[in-house]
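Figure 6 in text form: structure in, sequence out.
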């Protein structure tokens, strides 16, 4: 056998509907004073994790969301603990419905556009037409990815400009990526 290991405790902060709350402050307390603190990201797969010394049998935790505060004493053998704020309801995102229909419409238009481009194979496309094709493909790609759930983060440094960094997120990132790569 080896030495006793630390006990990890995963802390989740949820609203009334069980949706993870982003930017909630979670603290571990000793004698009502914070000894450790972290902020939630708002994802189910990214709880706040505290490593508890084997010297403790239980710890006091506090969660703050805006002005709402909850405290609880948790046994160190409990792997997961959830603070649920019944008075907080986060807005629901429109995962289905109109945005999914729009994504399929724009995706279909983009697909037919690219298939027609390959099928007719314009070998001597004028430079202005090439720019229009590149712009249209970028716009449609950005719209389609912007409607789908999820995100894409794109960042890079501009050479010779003192490490200036540019970045794009979501549909705009796909637009930038297609525009630069095409």
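Output sequence:
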């Amino acid at each position: 056998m080896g030495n006793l290991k630390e006990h990890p405790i995963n802390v989740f902060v949820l609203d009334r509907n069980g949706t993870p709350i982003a930017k909630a402050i979670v603290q571990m307390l000793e004698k009502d004073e914070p000894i450790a603190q972290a902020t939630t990201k708002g994802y189910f797969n990214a709880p706040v994790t505290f490593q508890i010394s084997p010297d403790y049998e239980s710890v006091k935790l506090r969660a703050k969301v805006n002005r709402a505060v909850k405290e609880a004493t948790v046994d160190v053998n409990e792997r997961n603990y959830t603070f649920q704020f019944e008075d907080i309801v986060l807005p629901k995102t429109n995962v289905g419905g109109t945005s999914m229909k729009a994504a399929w419409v724009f995706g279909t238009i983009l697909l037919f556009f690219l298939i027609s481009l390959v099928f007719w194979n314009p070998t001597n496309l004028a430079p202005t037409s090439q720019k229009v094709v590149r712009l249209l493909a970028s716009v449609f790609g950005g719209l389609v990815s912007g409607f789908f759930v999820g995100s894409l983060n794109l960042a890079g440094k501009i050479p010779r400009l003192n490490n200036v960094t540019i970045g794009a997120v979501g549909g705009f990132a796909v637009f930038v990526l297609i525009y630069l790569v095409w």
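Caption detail: Residues 7-84 form a domain with the Immunoglobulin-like fold (CATH 2.60.40.1120).
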